[in-house]
Amino acid sequence: MRNPHNETLSAQGPQDRPVRPEKALPERKCILTARHDGRGALLRLAISPDGLVLPDPLARAPGRGAWIGVSRADLEIALANGKLRGALARAFKGAPLTIPADLPDLIEQGLKRATLDRLGIELRAGSLVLGTEKIAQSARSGAIAWLAHASDARADGVGKLAQAWRVGEMAEGSGMAGVILPLDRAALSVALGRDNVVHLGVTDPAAAERIAGPLDRLMHFIGAAAPEGPPGTPIGIESPGGPAPATAPAAQAANDDLDTKGE
After folding, report:
1. How far is CA 32 from CA 42, 43, 96, 98, 119, in A?
2. Is this model's pTM higher than 0.90 or not?
3. What 8-state DSSP symbol labels residue 141?
4. How many CA atoms lie within 13 A of 229 on its CB side?
5. What is the pLDDT of residues 155-213, one digit of tens each?
6. Angular region, 187: left φ>0, alpha ψ -120 to 50, beta rest
7. Contact predicate 195/136, CB 8 Å
């Protein structure tokens, strides 16, 4: 016997089904500005058992934490005038605290390490393309979702790959060029275990989103402006008609455009 209730349910289309409300992303409040933002836009500070305040770039340390969403310059001012200590004392409810004098350095180093670690994970997952010629070929075929360059990349190398990327995306004249990373070739090469890593291409949009998380926090902290794009667009992926790309500084090395063996 047919069940009329089941029949009714099976006849329903997607438009007839109840829409589940999207989960709100968790927000945190910056202890220095009182502004609320998503966890991905803020940096967590954690307190060790002996009261030492340290950065927690991945927000995984156990125990209590406090969140900041300011640039390094603003943090240095807050550290010097005592505002940071007062805000931390309130956040940690009067617990004895030791704030390292080099906390801004520790934060920047931690954010750089988190970004490099993420790049290493994506390389092992097969989402990164290295080597100028390989990136150029992938870019022209439309297979590059995200493009980045070392801070000491030569302008001609950046321009060559940017042009190939725009061709592959059918976005010539858009200004898409990728992002100049706040990391030089030495740091990238050590982190990725390759020689002379100057340019990076990412083939998986989801991987680009994962890289954008720690990189966005790093760029914000050091006060580097990120290229604009549609909401939710990872750093370096610009919309047609977007702003002109940043100019890459000249590099000391002359082999920027060489395709390293094994890359």
Report:
1. 11, 12, 19, 18, 30
2. no
3. T
4. 20
5. 999 999 999 999 999 998 888 899 999 999 999 999 999 999 999 999 999 999 999 99
6. alpha
7. no
Query: How many helices (H) and strands (E) in the chain?
Result: 8, 9
Residue 17, token pair as written in the block: 């089904």
Q: Under the phi-then-psi rule, with left for phi > 0, alpha for psi from -120 to 50, and beta for the rest, what region is 210?
A: alpha
CB 121 within 8 A of CB 143: no
**Other C-beta atoms within 10 Å of 261: how many?**
8
Task: Give the phi and the psi of residue 98 in degrees, each rounded to 5.
Answer: -125, 115
How big is the CA angle at 9 (ends 3 and 13), to the nearest 5 degrees? 150
DSSP letter (8 states) at residue 98: B
Residue 222 exposure: Cα atoms within 13 Å on the Cβ side: 18
Higher-pLDDT residue of 172, 260: 172
Q: What's the average model confidence in pLDDT over 216-221?
A: 94
SS in 3 state form for 28-52?
Answer: EEECCCCCEEEHHHCEEEEECCCCE
| Helix ranges, the chain (H) | 4-11, 72-81, 83-91, 103-124, 132-140, 155-168, 185-192, 205-222
- Mean pLDDT is lowest, of 74-88, 204-218, 221-235, for 221-235
